[in-house]
Write a structure and sequence with these properties.
- It is a single chain.
- With 154 residues, the chain is mainly alpha-helical.
- It has seven helices and no strands.
- Helix 1 packs antiparallel against helix 4, helix 1 packs across helix 5 and helix 4 crosses helix 5.
- The radius of gyration is 20 Å and the shape is elongated.
């Protein structure tokens, strides 16, 4: 039982650290909407391959929304801090789940040839799911409310 508690602490630090580290790059200045066009007009290389261009366009689009890239950074930072705190790690694991799934899917669909990154991000999702599953007894009453389906006699 003690080994399991240590494992949970390690997983909280792993997922939380990953989230915090990933959030740092999302608070930089947003590029101009015409940046890529200007590079192409100058004859500069935008991306060395079509795969890299897809990734750049995806991230560029999130940055150009004006809100989503920093919002993503805030959510990653929040999830990471909650996980690392250990005190609020259960809610941190829930907040981090859609983020870790998205990170994995990003790598699966846009960098599927990068096996190392796929394995790393899959481990991140699995670790996040283990954290959520480890506290199932805490979440179960919130997810399953039997009083809703019971009919009371008058």
């Amino acid at each position: 039982m003690k080994a399991f508690k240590i494992l949970i602490i390690i997983l909280n630090l792993y997922v939380g650290g990953f989230m915090i580290y990933g959030s740092f790059g999302k608070f930089k200045e947003t590029p101009k909407p015409t940046e890529i066009i200007e590079k192409v007009q100058k004859g500069e290389e935008v991306a060395p391959s079509e795969d890299v261009l897809k990734i750049k366009n995806y991230i560029f689009g999130m940055k150009q929304s004006g809100y989503f890239w920093p919002f993503l950074g805030i959510m990653e930072l929040l999830a990471g801090l909650l996980l690392v705190s250990q005190l609020f790690s259960r809610i941190g694991a829930i907040v981090a789940l859609p983020l870790t799934v998205n990170i994995f899917l990003f790598h699966l669909y846009l960098e599927g040839h990068e096996i190392g990154e796929l394995i790393q991000t899959l481990c991140l999702v699995v670790a996040n799911c283990v954290l959520i599953a480890a506290s199932y007894k805490v979440w179960k009453p919130l997810l399953l409310d039997k009083t809703v389906v019971q009919l009371k006699e008058a």
